[in-house]
Amino acid sequence: MVRIKATSSGICLRSPMHEVSIMESAVQMAVDAAKSAGASRVLALRLRVGTLSGTVPEALRFAFDVVCRDTIAEGASLEMESVPAAGWCPVCRVEFACADFISECPRCHNPNGELRRGRELEIASVEIN
After folding, report:
1. Which candidate, 4, 7, 30, places its Cα nearest to that of 100?
2. Gap between the Cα atoms of 97 and 118, Å rounded
3. What's the mean pLDDT when you consider all of the chain?
4. Which segments of 37-99 does DSSP mark as H helices, in order?
5. pLDDT for the residue numbered 9
6. Vertex 99: Cα angle to 56 and 118 (nearest 5)
7. What torsion do the CA atoms of 9, 13, 17, 19 make, to the nearest 10 degrees?
8. For the chain, what percent of residues have pLDDT higher than 90?
9. C-beta neighbour count of 114 within 10 angstroms
């Protein structure tokens, strides 16, 4: 399946393979951390995923179930915290919610080039046993 997404910079073709490779790396890091701590199981993986990270949470969840098979992470739970995008206006010195990489300040309508949050894609924690 290929997803077509319209963005402010044009059209982007996306396939779920992007999320599979991301999740392979995240699960491998969790497994490596568990093994280095002497644990035999990964019980939970918690991710922080920005709304502008370029990933699809549902595809990440599907990929997680697939890449955990036959590893010490099989059966682990996946929790994802959504991180909303926020821009910064240097003129008003105010942070504001935004829906894209380039937004304008809702107060002064100055075009904004600084995205403060929303691109995150990181492991918040790994629960092991």
Report:
1. 7
2. 10
3. 88
4. 57-67
5. 39
6. 60
7. 30
8. 78
9. 11
Cα–Cα distance measured from residue 118 to residue 127, given in angstroms and rounded to the nearest whole number: 24
Nearest-5° angle of CA 62, CA 35, CA 60? 15
- Whole-number Å distance between alpha carbons of 61 and 49: 12
pLDDT greater at residue 5 or residue 93: 93
Q: Domain limits of the chain? A: 3-83+118-128
43-67 core/surface letters (b: 16 or more CB in 10 A; e: else):
bebbbbbbbbbebbeebbeebbeeb
> Within a 13 Å sphere around the CA of 102, how many CA atoms are in the beta-carbon half?
5
DSSP 106-120: TTT--EE-EEEES--
Mean pLDDT throughout 33-37? 96
**The domain 3-83+118-128: what is its CATH number?**
3.30.2320.50
pLDDT in tens, 45-72: 999 999 999 999 999 999 999 999 999 9
Q: Residue for token digits 């105010």? A: 94
